[in-house]
Design brief:
The structure holds two protein chains of two kinds. Chain A is an alpha/beta fold. Chain A has 13 helices and eight strands. Chain A has helices spanning 46-71, 85-92, 108-113, 121-126, 135-138, 149-163, 190-202, 229-235, 248-263, 293-300, 304-315, 320-343, 362-379; strands spanning 18-19, 100-102, 178-183, 206-212, 215-216, 219-220, 240-244, 269-274. In chain A, strands 1-7-8-4-3-2 form a six-stranded parallel beta sheet, sandwiched between helices. Chain A has a two-stranded antiparallel ribbon with strand order 5-6. Chain A starts with 17 loop residues before the first strand and ends in a 15-residue tail after the last helix. The longest helix of chain B is centred in the first third of the chain and has 15 residues, at 28-42. The two termini of chain B are 29 Å apart. The chains are: A alpha/beta, B alpha/beta.
């Protein structure tokens, strides 16, 4: 049975409706509805464009190194953001320091733009931490693995920003927006829909940034929706836009507009960044079972990094010595990641009890004490373990 | 019955000579309302969220008048979406707020179960203690009001089985007031199960009796609410009233029954129960939640481990049967009753 009648077409590139400022060939464009967005990137000079390129190169190196480390048995699992660098770096670089990000678990590019040392992300995939970084230091929340749950957290956080009086003050250093990053699969989750309801009815300063990478593990977007994903937002009364997610400039411009709307009191925006998951879902996945080599090849030709490189070259902004310095920087970054990961030790077993609660909880205290006594029993040189014979200690 | 309830914490009994503190006669529902009102007054970061809690004052009128006095931004009528209520409360807590959510009825908490168990309970741990989630989820709970399906349930076990949550259940107006103040002050998420059938019980409430700042220790302490020597009845929340009634009836038949009100099932104050059962040698656990794998099973296991040589009989349980909560006309056959509790007391004495 073909469930996809009439739905697959909804997830093809949006043609005139898709905002694009850089063609796959690396030429500037600003046709039709894209035209108003050109001015939002007009201030990006060659140095800024090279900065975006550098961001994407370093993030891709991170992906490559982490994937290799998983293959070497140093990480348990790793989800690549391969192919989504432009959507993530472009949107991330549009953020102000006071803005707050709620990522899913593939937002390494956004993490990089928030100043997070990407090495810290690997603590989670090394199996030594469920989080791994100081969220407040970067205004970048922990990865959320349950699909879509964090879109509600982002909305609630934005409701808090409203109550703090940090919307529509006109002060660009105070007005604050919140961004939730999620994927095409998430749009089927109830929580994402509830988040849109709450955000719309409260006019919360939150941007719903949906990276449609076209694959929810093995399921194409047509399994999630029979309309283009950005039409979903419109159904909730939320301004919605589809952007070429492999175009770093358009991703930047569209996000800048959405953030401005949020900060100024205009409420939420839904962005569908149309992109492609060039890699596997995670290192445990095997895309050869469900998608064609031809499709992968087609998207390799739309690689977001190559696109910006072509543009830099066409603009005369490409500089070989700068490029080779960047290669060296990426190599050094990779080397540092490898050394860092290999040196990470497992935390002590007792740490599992440390932060279950913020205040004393008798059950945890008893478990901790019992466990300490149990461990101490092994340490006794005489083998004379003094383990409580009554499990009652627990 | 209320005169048999020992309201004071066990450590404060020496104050017999001191004049009693000024009290106000309140229903349990009003005591909860008063706790929220004072929390809203004391801390601008406290806010209430739920369905119909504004102009209506909640379906049980527990939030009556609060939106009028504190405004729509602090007493928030939310969209009709429980996962959304708890999920946005988490976000507000991450921004520094202290949300108190109302779930309209026990049976409607399940859309929020994912947010509560995978996010709310775990974020403090996931962040290695960097983040705190001071979120209270109030749940009118339990049966006995002749309601339709999904309006009479006791799902507390499902939450107590998740580390990271505190699960409490007051049984009387004073505890409802004091424990809710403590729950709101707690840096940890608290599931607050309110005995909806007892919303209209009246008692004297000392409104000055609140937690010391930052301390939630008493949230996890059980209390001996009736002294006795033959059998210990362990109960909490909605079942406490009927358990005390059964103790009174047993006394008339010459059996001296001690009653422990657990007040919390996470953490479970085993020490108070063990101390009691070591004296009486017999233990019966009473609750409305299903008996099978319910809190009584945990109490029985703990008591068996720690009171093994003091026990005169196995620990018995009186709780809900393994059936969906029945139609209203049968609910009194399902809920623990004075007769069912006395039957268990007789069985444990006959052992």
């Amino acid at each position: 049975m073909n469930h996809q009648d009439g739905t697959q077409a909804a997830h093809e590139p949006g043609g005139e409706e898709m905002i694009q400022l850089l063609t796959p060939e690396g030429r500037r464009t600003a046709e039709g509805p894209s035209a108003p967005y050109a001015e939002r990137v007009a201030h990006l000079d060659h140095a800024a464009l090279r900065g975006l390129y550098r961001d994407m190169v370093l993030v891709r190196r991170f992906d490559d190194e982490a994937t290799a480390l998983q293959r070497q048995g140093e990480l348990g699992l790793f989800p690549q953001c391969l192919g989504q660098e432009a959507a993530q770096v472009g949107s991330g670089r549009a953020l102000a320091p006071q803005d707050y990000v709620f990522p899913s678990y593939r937002e390494h590019g956004v993490a990089h733009t928030r100043g997070l040392d990407l090495a810290q992300i690997l603590l989670q995939f090394r199996g030594v931490d469920h989080g791994g970084w100081d969220t407040e230091a970067h205004n970048f929340h922990l990865y959320t693995l349950v699909i879509g749950s964090h879109t509600l957290h982002a909305t609630g956080y934005a409701m808090g920003v409203q109550r703090d009086g940090l919307v529509g003050t006109g002060d660009p250093e105070r007005d604050t927006a919140v961004v939730a990053y999620f994927g095409d699969g998430s749009t089927a989750q109830g929580d994402v829909n509830e988040a849109l309801v709450f955000a719309a009815t409260t006019n919360a300063p939150v941007v719903f940034f949906c990276q449609n990478n076209q694959w929810a593990i093995s399921e194409p977007t047509s399994r999630q929706s029979r309309v283009p994903l950005f039409h979903r937002g419109r159904g909730f009364g939320v301004p919605s836009v589809r952007v070429d997610g492999n175009d770093v400039l358009a991703s930047y411009a569209v996000t800048a507009e959405a953030l401005e709307r949020a900060r100024s009191g205009g409420g939420p925006t839904f962005v569908e960044a149309y992109t492609y998951r060039m890699g596997a879902h995670t290192t445990s996945d095997d895309p050869t079972r469900y998608r064609s080599r031809a499709q992968e090849q087609e998207w390799r030709e739309r690689d977001p990094i190559d696109r910006l490189r072509r543009h830099l070259e066409a603009e005369g902004a490409w500089d070989e010595s700068w490029a080779s310095d960047l290669d060296a920087e990426a190599d050094a970054f990779g080397e540092r990641l490898r050394a860092y990961v290999r040196a990470i030790e497992a935390p002590p077993a007792s740490s599992m009890f440390d932060t279950v609660y913020a205040s004393e909880h008798g059950t945890v205290t008893a478990d901790r004490e019992w466990h300490a006594q149990y461990e101490a029993g092994f340490a006794d040189a005489d083998g004379d373990a003094e383990i409580a014979t009554q499990g009652g200690a627990r | 019955m209320s005169q048999t309830v020992q309201d004071r914490p066990a450590g404060n009994e020496q104050g017999a000579a001191a004049p009693p503190p000024p009290t106000t006669r309140l229903t349990l529902g009003r005591a909860i309302n008063e706790a929220m009102r004072r929390a809203l007054e004391d801390d601008p970061k406290v806010l209430l969220m739920g369905e119909d809690i504004g102009a209506l004052g909640g379906v049980f009128r527990v939030t009556d008048g609060l939106q009028k006095d504190f405004g729509e931004d602090r007493v928030v009528d939310t969209p009709l979406a429980e996962s959304g209520i708890v999920g946005t409360a988490i976000g507000l807590a991450l921004r520094g707020y202290r949300p108190v959510c109302e779930i309209q009825f026990d049976g409607f908490i399940f859309p929020a179960y994912d947010q509560i168990t995978t996010q709310l309970a775990k974020l403090h741990n996931r962040s290695r203690g960097r983040l705190e989630l001071p979120v209270v989820i109030r749940v009118p709970s339990g049966g006995g009001i002749g309601a339709v399906e999904h309006h009479s349930e006791s799902p507390e076990t499902l939450f107590a089985h998740t580390a990271g949550l505190r699960v409490v259940a007051p049984s009387n107006p004073q505890d409802a007031y004091t424990m809710l103040r403590e729950a709101i002050a707690s840096p940890d998420p608290v599931l607050f199960f309110e005995p909806k059938a007892r919303y209209w019980d009246k008692a004297e409430v000392d409104l000055a009796r609140v937690a010391t700042a930052g301390s939630a220790a008493s949230l996890g302490t059980a209390r001996v609410v009736r002294r006795g020597s033959d059998v210990t009845l362990v109960t909490y929340g909605a079942a406490t009233h009927v358990t005390l009634a059964a103790a009174e009836a047993a006394a008339a038949e010459g059996t001296s029954v001690e009653v422990v009100d657990l007040r919390a099932i996470s953490p479970l104050d085993t020490a108070t129960v063990v101390e009691s059962v070591r004296r009486t040698g017999r233990c019966v656990v009473v609750h409305e939640a299903l008996t099978f794998l319910g809190p009584g099973a945990e109490v029985a296991a703990r008591v068996t481990e720690e009171c093994f040589y003091a026990l005169e009989a196995p620990v018995l349980r009186v709780g809900g049967f393994h059936a969906p909560y029945p139609v209203a006309k049968l609910e009194h056959d399902f809920l623990p009753s004075v007769d069912r509790i006395l039957e268990a007391v007789d069985r444990t004495l006959a052992f």
